[in-house]
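Illustration: Fe2OG dioxygenase domain-containing protein.
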Amino acid sequence: MAMALCNSLFHVEFGELGVAVGTFDGIRLTKLPCPRSNTSIKCATKSVKRSYARAIPCGAQFLISKYCYNGLLFSDDIWWSGISDSCFGRRLSPSVGPDASLQSGGFLNNTQFSAIQNAFFHTERLSWITYIYKSHEHSPTRTSSNRVCTHIHFKFISSENKLILIPNAGFYFIPGALSLEEQCQWIKESLMSFPQPPNRTNHNAIYGPIEDLFVSAKEDKSDACTPQWKFVEELGESHGKDVSKSVSASVLLRKLRWSTLGLQFDWSKRSYNISLPHKKIPDALCQLAKRMAGPAMPCGVEFQPEAAIVNYFGLGDMLGGHLDDMEKDWSKPIVSMSLGCKAIFLLGGKSREDTPIAMFLRSGDLILMAGEARECFHGVPRIFTDAENAEICHLESHFAGEDDQHYLNYIRTSRININIRQVF
Ligand SMILES: O=C(O)CCC(=O)C(=O)O
Ligand SMILES: [Fe+2]
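Result:
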């Protein structure tokens, strides 16, 4: 994983959350006061719809230069065409075929348009739209003031009726890809079994392999005075002697930052070390990854999950702008699943100077990065752990049993990302 600081300043509006200004690495991410209330967003959306319905003659083209769907900021321009008044206010099912896509200057037929409109306008995930221009030109011209986006496509997986948003070539964002049961299952696995040796974690370097960290952390709670591990910390010459500091399992669980599954990644050499002892990725996770990788795979080719990195984020943790470039074949996707608290994900360009686009990743969302997207810097500058913004109510109701309390306590203030890779 090539870590690099992306210094281009970005400015992102997050609907009710306000405006964030910062750098790609997130260090200077700041939340500014909210410019819009919930009600004004709703009103704005309504009035946008009304003005469309009133003012748009059939067949005209429109340019939406900025809007936000599911927290995903689209700041590039998009042309929609083939709009007719009668489309508005009608609830049509998204019934376009798997390959329906909208490209720059492309023309949508009414069914395609309605499907997209339906997805955008009849969902709570539409947060805001700004700057809507209309044009009667049929061929948008590419000038700087009238820019046409060349890389935003919308796709539907017709079989599952799921919307996939593809803001960059090779980048797929599939909101709500994992069911609630799947989310809970993989949260449990991520805590109980993924950090188990021979899988390595960030704790290996200091403590060596640690067995049953999650179980020990659970037991810690009832016997907080009995730490499970100790390490010796040199506190400096002036103290005249070494001072031992004990670390409890629950502290180590909180400090768990990553674990690696399958082929083990050697962070010091920044490469996969096939000689390190390892277990194959669990079969259920392999099957899931193969299924999830589908939209980014060439027809008839199957994704081969060989390694995975599990990232654990607590309050204040972030992942700086980086590239994942240690796998051999970049045409194969990285399959990346989000669990737990909501996060901001930034997708930049090939240069660290390119301004990233931002999106929220919620529990159950999936990202695929293949091809060109593998060359794009990306990072996670922030997670949200407060009750209002973490958006994990559905997990709270599912983890309701007594045995589940420890998972719930953990995930209430954490995010887990499982990203699965084909190495060769
Ligand atoms: O946490 C995420 O969503 C992204 C993780 C990632 O980019 C990585 O582990 O390489
Ligand atoms: Fe990454």
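Reading the tokens back as a structure: The pocket of 2-oxoglutaric acid (ligand 1) is lined by residues 1, 309, 311, 319, 324, 336, 338, 345, 361, 378, 380, 417, 419 (CB under 6 Å).
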